[in-house]
Structures are given as structure tokens and as C-alpha cells.
Amino acid sequence: MNTNTKFLKFINELGNQSQVKFLVFEKTFPISIFALFFGFFCGNLFGTFLNFLRNFFSWDGFIIIATILTIEFINYLNYKNTKNITKLKKIVPQKSILFWNFFRFNQQPVIRFFNFYKIGLLLGFFTDAFKVGS
Length: 134
Fold this sequence. Notes:
Blueprint: H1 6-46, H2 50-54, H3 60-79, H4 82-91, H5 97-104, H6 108-133
């Protein structure tokens, strides 16, 4: 009897794919949860430290603009197009070493960390707004 059937090949392939996906999940899940909770923590503490930030900025609009620009920059890094990066490399001079070192290593885990931090931060703002409103 032939044990090398299509069904057994499919089962073996499915097992291998699920094992690879589980290993990826095992590596990225703890960092993602940490970033999410850290962002949530920072979002909840933002209202507490707002009076401290007001000592440095004379207008609350600067704090809001800085927060929005940070969130939008994280969104840009997460959802950027490779065509835009080549345009950006043409605009930025070659002398900026830190900028070019950022594009040399694998950015995906760092961008994923910042994206989960951003999600946690926005959830923290949302829950803090409920605490202030009630």
C-alpha cells in the first residue's frame, strides 16, 4: 500500500506551515503585548503629566501637534510604499548616517513594536477620556 498519498502530503505540509507560523507567533507575541500595554500605560499617564508638560510648552496646541505628528509618523512607517522610500532617499543627502543606518537593518520588528505602542497609546487616551468625562 502506498503511504505517499496526496492527502498525507497535504497533512504534512499543513503541519509544517502551522509549525512555522507558531514559531513566528512565539517570537513576536510577547513583544507585541508588551508594546501594547506600555502604550496603554503611557496613554493613561498622559493626563497626569500634562501639567508637567505645560511648564515646557506655553500652549496646549503644541503638545497636541507633537502627539499627532508622532502618531502620523508611526502610521507613515507602518503603511509606507517602497516607491516613497526611493523618493525620500533621493531627497535626503547621503551624509546623514543615522538616517541611512535606519534603512539598512530589518525594520519590520521595530515598526511593529511602534505600531502596537501607538495602538496602546490611543486606547489609553480613549479610556482616560472616559475617566475624565465621568
